Amino acid sequence: MSRLYLDLTELVDHPIRTGIQRVEGELLKWWPAEVPFRVVRFDAARGLVVLPEGTADCLRRVFTAAVGERDALVGALRELAGAPGNPVLEFADEDARLVVPEVFYDEGRISFYNHLTSRQMQRTYFLVFDLLPLTHPGYFLPMTSPELTCAYFRLIRTAVQIGFISSATRKAFHDRLRRSVEDALALPDGRGSVTGASSSDLAAGTVEDALALRDGRGSVTGAVSSDLAA
User: Fold this and answer.
1) How confident is the model at residue 1, as a pLDDT?
2) CA gap 20, 201 in Å, rounded
3) Measured distance CA(26)–CA(10) in Å, rounded
4) Which of 115, 133, 135, 137 is nearest to 124 (CA)?
5) In terms of Cα–Cα distance, which of 226, 228, 222, 223 is closest to 95?
6) For the CA atoms of the chain, what is the radius of gyration?
7) Over 60: is that where the pLDDT of 201 sits?
8) pLDDT tens-place string over residues 125-152
């Protein structure tokens, strides 16, 4: 049985309940129990670090806790992420599979993924939320470096395993980055799904449907299930 890891660096570092982090919170909430995984976090000095077993559960509790309980849970999350014994992910292991459901404009993290071998990239699954820095650059400048934005999109343009938060995002990816992705996973449009400028604000029902493994490869976990069973 292959081992699955989720790179939730932004979520661990900034566990807010809006935007992409909200989607990740729902991802954890509806993740099927029969597909075990571990959370990893990018460390500029070490690479991907495997966080303790309780990290995913702590993140789930952060997203469901009452306001008065949240600070203590975030503190517990910080302790888990900073534990001195957390090991580096041995991604050379053929049994490892990695899912990256985040957008990141961090030079070190982009470089890390760019330096993966072709075999490692074959076992890495990226989820694309939007192309807003390309389609609506005025929303991001001058806060986001154009160089890092372009570096991130060059990375996902060459990704072997790729999925999209919606069919609209998949179409924007094809139109802007000129790569054929018509066969790539796109999470279901319809109830609760949104497009355009608010495409990262995915409703819980859509995430539940996408993760329920009801249609095989038409889900985040379904897209890697055949590899995990290998």
Assistant:
1) 55
2) 7
3) 15
4) 115
5) 228
6) 17
7) no
8) 999 998 888 888 777 766 778 888 999 9
